[in-house]
Amino acid sequence: MKEQLQALKTAALEAVQQTNDEKELQQIRVNYLGKKGELTGILRGMGKLSAEERPVIGELANVVREEITAALDEKKAVLEEKALEIQLQTEKIDISLPGYPVKRGGAHLLTQIVEEIEDLFVGMGYEIKEGPEVETDYFNFEALNLPKNHPARDMQDTFYLTNELLMRTHTSPMQARTMQKSDKNQPVKMICPGKVYRRDTDDATHSHQFTQIEGLYVDRDVKMSDLKGTLDAFAKAMFGKDRKIRLRPSFFPFTEPSVEMDISCKVCGGTGCRVCKGTGWIEILGAGMVHPNVLRMAGYDPEEFTGFAFGMGPERIAMLKYGVDDIRHFYTNDTRFLNQYHKA
């Protein structure tokens, strides 16, 4: 059997040395070392050997297997290296050909509007705050002068998760959160952009999810004239220096007095047209002086401190600024719409 093993090794090594094909090399491996290969066939006869001969033949068989395997692996590495060299020599890249154009994305129109508003108010000394979208009933309502069973709660159809947790209906809770955490000897100037949620039927002008930007300024001796000046600067920066504003009395539970702000119609310049329904004005946002109860619950003395707050919708601003006629365009991800507002 020793002679058989030596002859098998010689034949296998010679076959490995002579081949120059990877497939043929793999076949040699199968022929000599496979489950039905020649080495296995020889080892089947070990049962006829004496007890003294078996370990000797077994050790020799292992040596033969290792030598053949090493020769196969070495030959495989050589053939793979040669194949790579041939591939490198035959394959060339024509660097003179033009590349494929890469389509670049851009910020969503609403993101652009939010960032533009943020830049404007940061320039006026405001900080940007962020708050949780899952809010407590206390901060969403009670801390904003909307106690349990207050009729004004019906104005905001709410997604309740539990009796005390809900999807925030406005970004106004950050008024209370910011004032409660603030140093009462320092002024508070902040805006809070973010998503809000209301149980509403989606149509061209309404959505169950939309964005808001809340603004707040609290300090000693803050007046309604400060609010008007701030909103006038905002309107001119967003819509043009020729735009005018007007404030109309309104009602919000967390401000007193409360106002709705209109801007002069861009289409007709204030003379009246179909867009502004003949009034010359377009409603843009709500605002007012912070209610004394809201100040008191946040730890401020309303006899010493005053403030104003405002809330605006970036969707509404984008629709007016760019003539978008359907709020659903912002959420349907139609690239034909979105690509119109990509900035270079």
UniProtKB/TrEMBL annotation:
Protein name: Phenylalanine--tRNA ligase alpha subunit
Enzyme Commission identifier(s): 6.1.1.20
UniProt keywords, alphabetically: Aminoacyl-tRNA synthetase, ATP-binding, Cytoplasm, Ligase, Magnesium, Metal-binding, Nucleotide-binding, Protein biosynthesis
A molecular function (GO) term: phenylalanine-tRNA ligase activity
CDD domains linked to this entry: PheRS_alpha_core
Origin species: Aciduricibacillus chroicocephali
Taxonomic path: Bacteria, Bacillati, Bacillota, Bacilli, Bacillales
The family this protein is said to belong to: Belongs to the class-II aminoacyl-tRNA synthetase family. Phe-tRNA synthetase alpha subunit type 1 subfamily.
Free-text remark on how the cofactor is bound: Binds 2 magnesium ions per tetramer.
Regions that span the bilayer: none
